Model the fold of this input.
Amino acid sequence: MRIAIVGVGNMGEAVLAGLVKAGHEVLAGVRRPERGAELSERYDVVHGSAAEIVDGADVVVLGVKPYDIVSLIDSLPLASGQLIVSLAAGIGTAQIEAAAPEGVGVVRVMPNTPAMIGEGMSIISPGASATDEQVAVATELMRAVGETVTVPERQLDAATAVSGSGPAYVFYIAESLVEAGVHLGLPRAVATRLVEQTLAGASLLLKSSDEHPAVLREQVTSPGGTTAAALAVFEEDGLRSTFLKATRANRDRSREIAAEG
Done:
């Protein structure tokens, strides 16, 4: 299977690396020759302009900014039978299908940055034009960089607010915990190491356990103890409602991008 990736930024490169590791034939579409040379040296892939690599590809992965999607599709030599996999937030499959030639299948995918280490979570939403076989192809490709879940497109903005942007929330929490440790008197290197392993271990425990997150939290929380004191502050300051407001803002921004596009 020949896969063309147009737009090889952080996420596009993460997908490219996973696909190369899985043994797929991957071509990189770049604007700057020096970026193409860098990718070729790093992953041993062929690079060229977007139009050059898309011609004859089975799958076209679009890793460009949402505002560039429609104009980019207009410029590509797409043909019936090809599959577009869009990684762009906000731009719906109907918009992409309207810009693409007839017979081109469209699937939206929202990955996240842990795909860079093969631990991504990719949300897959098929367009009306995508066949079951094409959806299966998109799913197989994204499993090269982590796990996948398929949802109706009407749920994709909500899923993006939780998973697509989720790593940023985790890094924000990590940053805040490190700073808290420093303010409590810990050396920054020690605070950073404590936070890194605590988040990594807690995540692995959550993933491997059949228990609800609330049960795992309760296992750490002795009545009247130190953890209970900290959690009481989170509740008092409305941390749960802040997450709700933040994810709603994320979802609404995705809808705004779609309207602007």
Notes: Residues 242 and 248 are 10 Å apart (CA to CA). Strands lie at 2-6, 25-29, 46-48, 59-62, 83-86, 105-110, 120-126, 146-150. The mean pLDDT is 93.
